[in-house]
Amino acid sequence: MGRRLSRGGLWSAALGLVALAAALGRMTTLVRPSLDGAPWPATLTGAFLLGAAIAVVGWLVRLRLAGTIAFGLVTIAVVMGRVTAPDTMLAGLVPTRATWDAVAAALTVGLEYLRYGTAPIFPHQELLLLLLPVFIAIGAAWAWLTAGGRGAAAAAVPAGLYLAVSIADQGATPGWWLVAAVAWVGLLLVVSGWEGTVSAPRLLGRPGRAGAVAAGVVVVVLGLVATDIGAGAVPSSGAVPWRDADTFGPGSGTSLNLFASTTQTNLVSRSDDVMFRAAVVGAPGDELYWSLITLDSYDGRNWAPSWDDTRALGDGVVFERRDLRYLGPTSTVSATVEIGDLRQGLLPHLYSVRDVQGDAPLIRNGVRVRDDGALLVDGRTREGLRYQLTSQVPDRDLGVAALGADGALSPLFEGARDAGVFTPAGAGTGRADEPADLDRFLALPDDLDPGIEALARRVSEGATTPLEQMIFLESWFRVPDLFTYSAEIDPGHAADDLADWLLDPETPNHRVGYCEQFATALGVMGRSLGIPTRLVLGFTPGRFNQFGEVEVLGRNAHAWVEAWVAGVGWVRFDPTPRGEGDNPAATSDLGFNLAAFVPEEVDNPLADLNPGGGPILVDPERFADFADPGPTPEIALDGEADTDSPTPLTVPTGVWWLAALAGLVVAIPLAKWVRRRRRLARARDGDVTAAWEEIVDRLRDLDRPISTAMTPDEIVAATGPELAPLAAAHARSTWGDRPPGPAETERALTALGSTETQLRRTTPRMRRVIAAWRPRSLRRP
Q: How far is residue 308's CA from residue 192's CA, in Å, rounded to a whole number?
């Protein structure tokens, strides 16, 4: 494994652990605390220890580097499979194709969290799954380099992690973080010079270790002073002003977390800070929703954007995939947008974009387009950034969607027409084609609580088309006796499961929330009925200022749902009962209550809503059972009873067996390694009995036939003649009239090495591996 590790090397390796602790501490500003289970720092620490255990095993069994890497990759594969989909593994240990598919899907979501998440984000399982192999690899590299006598290199591995985390932590004030980092580098130079593993520079013409030590001292002293003075020059974005002011620029702002669930609280911003301003032509500017990105992947807790291909701006670029566009009547709208307080890697836009122009380098060279029409930028928006949009905005006429591709009305709309309260305008689009990948907008977890679908069917009873079902669901969420809008939700005491939030009255914040909770629920309930849905993150309509511009504020941050209606495309539904009145329901322009035309024999409670289309009036007794539906029956998705369905292993639950395994693997060999180092140090100082104790313990662990009653000569006879010089020196040191001299001590230590070499040659490898973990010699005989 290389040369012997010096005391300076141990200090260097210890500095690596300090860097690891600093990286975990810095990550707490990027990742929220775990809501349940073990804290995520414990999860990642367990992964680091597991990696160290892998390296220790490779060291003990004398594996080459390639063999240790292969062993580590196999271990990582098993761990990731166990964390993601243990029920798909053979005997719970061998990954299958289904395991790899589940891991790949989870890693894709984890990458999206890293790509689109705005700190601090929640420690989702997919995010931790992405970090687990990283920390395992760091632990293995640190332990391997430490055992190989390369303490400085071992320290550099966790230091690289800290550097990456500090770059990601753009919101932190550099200050003492930077000072501490410089001090750490200086200490590493000092101990590396002490260790003698760093080539020492010449200092005043005098080479040697003193050069590295002196350089370290200079870095520490000057770093503590100079970096504290200059740290304020680095802006919060992490980019110095002279790098590219047009792209990043200094200053603070507001970012939105691009995910949605029942637990998230990051989208809401109740501030009156102006996110952006827009001069709009072609439509009433104060009635337009502004989009950032769509979320189409739901994992049972969270909505996230898929990993879609992106396209750079250029002539002929397709801004939104053609088969995903709205097919009904639209209006061409242009807008000149100026960013205010918004700091995001996306540009706010109106519906289906057709063109983007701008003079800033970030607009000309740094914009990429997703299939959903989202406009990604290579950086963050800054104050004063301007660009021009041209978009196709759907006309607000829900009746168009009711006509369908063939121009025929759906049954309930037909009833409204016959009653004289609805007059359809125009004809159907004549197009019934659907996107080839529409199924991805229907995907739901296999373990989704069946009570959600049962509730969705109950609320939409009497509706006969997806459009009618979505209208019923949207209207239900806006019933004030059933749901409460509130932005004051503590994420540590919020429901972490959609079924609990919807169905369990004992759940914290039961049916109380804001846009993320309502949009999450509507999107999932729609999918449970077979309706393709996606969530949209963006802003509700802003308000005109004195200059005729639309100002969109932080309090306008919002999430809503789009459902695919055949023959029309994506139709917006907004279930959130906001009090500001800036997010009208899809049915706000109808002027009548569609549920009033449900046949009388169908007991749909929404039929009691005010048929005049004004404020919703509810008979409380009719909704009594809807307010608290009671416990959900345990019914599996296939209709069979299911009272003992398996629960997939999650990272917080599995951290304990990871940490325990790592501890068991490392603890005993590490204790023996430390004991051996101390004994050899004593032996080099002239205490030969320490070397004798070491070989006797080695023989005991190897299960050789020796005992405490045997004399040194008898132990030599049972072991081999190579041990004789050490036995003689031990006897002289214990019973002789004078201790062994330097020459005899050197022969004794040589005999120890020769004996250990012979034992390795004559002892089977498996017995040596077992001996490394056998605790027998750690107990006093």
A: 47
How far apart CA 582 and CA 398 sit, in angstroms, is 18
How far apart, in whole angstroms, are the C-alpha atoms of residue 583 and residue 747? 88
With beta carbons less than 8 A apart as the criterion, state whether 564 and 532 touch. yes
pLDDT confidence of residue 279 = 93
Contact 533, 562 (CB under 8 A): yes
- What sections of 367-435 are H helices per DSSP? 398-403, 411-418
Residue 770 tokens read as 């077992």
> Cβ of 552: how many Cβ atoms within 10 Å?
25
Check whether 710 has a pLDDT greater than 60. Answer: yes
Contact 123, 31 (CB under 8 A): yes
**Alpha carbon distance 88, 73 (integer Å):** 19
Evaluated on CA atoms 469, 515, 322, 109, the torsion sign reads negative
In angstroms, rounded to a whole number, what is the distance separating the alpha carbons of residues 223 and 215? Answer: 12
pTM here is: 0.58
Give residue 621's identity as a one-letter amino acid code. Answer: E
For residues 135 and 80, the answer to whether their CB atoms sit within 8 Å is: no
The answer to whether the CB of 392 falls within 8 A of the CB of 351 is yes
Position 132, amino acid: L
Q: Cα torsion for 172, 177, 181, 186, to the nearest 10°?
A: 150
Distances (CA, A) of 396 to 87, 330, 484: 48, 9, 27
Report pLDDT digits (tens) over 458-482. Answer: 888 888 889 889 988 988 888 877 8
- Give me Rg for the CA atoms of the chain: 34
What pLDDT is stored for residue 220 in this prediction? 55
534: its two tokens? 């996606």
Q: What pLDDT is recorded for position 721?
A: 86
Model confidence band, residue 204 (pLDDT cutoffs 50, 70, 90):
very low
Type of residue numbered 662: A
SS3 state at 509? coil
Reading the block at residue 450, the tokens are 């069946």
- Which residue is it, tokens 């932190």? 172
Q: Looking at this protein, which amino acid is placed at residue 140? A: A
> Per the structure block, which two tokens stand in for 230?
């200059």
Q: How far apart are CA 74 and CA 79, in angstroms?
A: 9
pLDDT in tens, 583-609: 778 777 777 788 888 887 777 767 666
Between 688-701 and 724-735, two packed helices, what is the crossing angle to 10 degrees? 130
Which residue type, as a one-letter code, is found at position 566? A
* Separation of alpha carbons 58 and 68, rounded Å: 5
pLDDT band at 339 (very low <50, low <70, confident <90, very high): very high
CA distance 689 to 745: 10
Angle separating helix axes 724-735 and 742-762, nearest 10 degrees: 130
| Residues 125, 109 contacting (CB under 8 angstroms) | no
d(CA 381, CA 363): 10
Q: How far apart are CA 511 and CA 489, in angstroms?
A: 12
Q: What is the pLDDT of residues 417-435, one digit of tens each?
A: 888 888 776 666 656 667 8
